Amino acid sequence: MLSKKIENAINKQINAELWSAYLYLSMSAYFECSNLGGFANWMKVQAQEEVGHAMRFYKHVIERRGRVTVSAIAAPPVNWKSPLNAFEDAFKHEQKVTEMINDIANYAAAEKDHATANMLQWFIDEQVEEELSTDAIIQKLKMIGTNTGGLYMLDRELSQRKTK
Ligand code: FEO
Predict the structure, then answer these.
(1) 97 Cα–ligand 1 center, Å
(2) Closest ligand 1 atom, CA of 16?
(3) What is the distance between the alpha carbons of residues 71 and 79, in angstroms, rounded to a whole number?
(4) Span 2-15, average pLDDT
(5) Which atom of ligand 1 is nearest to the CA of 46?
(6) CA 45 to chain CA mean position, Å
(7) For 92-115, how does the pLDDT look when each residue is reduced to its tens digit (9 = 90+)?
(8) Are 147 and 28 in contact (CB under 8 A)?
(9) CA of residue 95 to ligand 1 center, whole Å
(10) Which domains, ranges and CATH numbers included, belong to the chain?
(11) How far apart are CA 57 and CA 119, in angstroms?
């Protein structure tokens, strides 16, 4: 059985992962509207992955005989000043998600809930990858600056991303 504290924290995390999906879907729509289809594709794949993250947490609560309670998903922003601004927001958001996952890992360690700790290990590794991949695009966007040729090349690269 899950403790109430961990159950509540995971329910909050399910909401946060679904909000992440909503955020990235909104960013995808922003890029579509800016004629950057490759960036839009990258964000759409990211949104799909976030739904998968929510479902991993969902499965854990169910398997531990806990109770999933879904709650309202807040509206994300809809506009950004530039592609760089959008990716900087995505990076800040991922850092926040990492903190939330670390908090649950701390609760699991304190309660000696090894099953939750084990499940969280996948997320701890995933957050390293998510922060890295977002930051890598930020660094490329900074290098590109106002060079539209560079932006076009990066857009082509990001169009290659596929669902895992
Ligand atoms: Fe599910 Fe991007 O963290």
Answers:
(1) 6
(2) 1
(3) 25
(4) 98
(5) 2
(6) 11
(7) 999 999 999 999 999 999 999 999
(8) no
(9) 9
(10) 4-158 (1.20.1260.10)
(11) 9
